[in-house]
TrEMBL record:
It comes from Mariniradius sediminis. NCBIfam families: phnA (TIGR00686). Residues 44-110 form the Protein YjdM C-terminal domain. It holds the Pfam family YjdM. This is Alkylphosphonate utilization protein. The lineage of its organism: Bacteria, Pseudomonadati, Bacteroidota, Cytophagia, Cytophagales. Gene3D superfamilies: 2.20.25.10, SH3 Domains.
């Protein structure tokens, strides 16, 4: 787990991350996700630079060929309830007709 820095408003060390933001439970101050990215926290962005979170719904922005499959995942395919993971393919999900897949965030947009 990444070390969360002290709150800029009250210097508390009890901060936590929620929905791409860092929150101080003592004073209620919230940092935006760009600040979290600067300190090295795990942040995943889509093709339009929107920040993604676990459970989001995304839309595939281009046809994606799948090894061993007869057809490609078509642009416009909705993928519900994604899970973010570290690595090159940073989205784990289930796509109807294909099953469990790992996608790169650069090929999806927040839906």
């Amino acid at each position: 787990m990444e070390k969360i820095p002290a709150c800029p408003a009250c210097s508390s060390l009890c901060g936590y991350e929620i929905d791409g933001k860092l929150v101080c439970p003592e004073c209620g101050f919230e940092w935006v996700a760009e600040v979290a990215e600067e300190i090295g926290a795990f942040v995943v962005k889509d093709a339009n630079s929107n920040i993604l979170a676990d459970g989001d719904t995304v839309v595939v922005v281009k046809d994606l060929p799948v090894k061993g499959a007869v057809k490609a995942i078509k642009a416009g395919t909705k993928v519900k309830n994604i899970r973010l993971v570290e690595g090159d393919h940073n989205i784990d999900c289930k796509i109807e007709g294909f099953g469990a897949m790992a996608l790169k965030s650069e090929f999806v947009r927040k839906g």
